[in-house]
Write a structure and sequence with these properties.
Layout lengths: L7 H5 L2 E5 L5 E3 L1 H7 L6 E6 L6 E7 L7 E2 L1 E3 L2 E4 L2 H6 L7 E9 L4 H4 L2 E11 L2 H10 L2
Antiparallel strand pairs: 1-2, 1-8, 2-7, 3-4, 3-5, 4-9, 6-7, 8-9
Length: 138
């Protein structure tokens, strides 16, 4: 007997966030939709104790004073994380840092929020990436 059909979209959507050349953490549209991000939300970020390439993100449905507020510009949602990533010594002006996100229910209690694991990867910033940065300053 068939209980329920699997929805391929639930298993093929790649959740991603990218540190922009300005240091802001921006989310893809799929990520915005899947995490149900709105300008009412806020986010906790936390490092992994053992792996510097892993962080955790807790998504809250309301604003919290000690969390990053989710900001928007049109349909684009982001966190103002510039000072955090500077403190972590991430060279976002010369490298593109991307996080692959996956649901991490085991972290919900510690984060007191809906928790996602953030696996970091990066590449050198190209001239095209630098032009995007320059346009954002206008």
């Amino acid at each position: 007997m068939i209980a329920k059909r699997f929805n391929a979209k639930e298993f093929t959507v790649r959740l991603k966030a990218t540190i922009q050349a300005t240091g802001k953490l921006g989310f893809t549209q799929d990520t915005i939709d899947q995490l149900r991000l709105t300008s009412e939300c806020s986010v906790f970020l936390a490092p992994d104790d053992e792996n510097k390439k892993v962080m955790y993100m807790g998504v809250l449905r309301e604003r919290m004073e000690d969390a990053f507020p989710v900001l928007s510009s049109g349909k684009y949602f982001y966190l103002n994380t510039t000072n955090l990533f500077k403190a972590l010594k991430l060279d976002f002006e010369h490298k593109v840092y991307m996080f692959d996100l996956s649901r991490f229910e085991e972290g919900d209690d510690a984060m007191e929020a809906e928790c996602y694991k953030m696996d970091l990867r990066w590449k050198e910033r190209t001239n095209d990436d630098k032009e995007i940065k320059d346009e954002s300053k206008e």
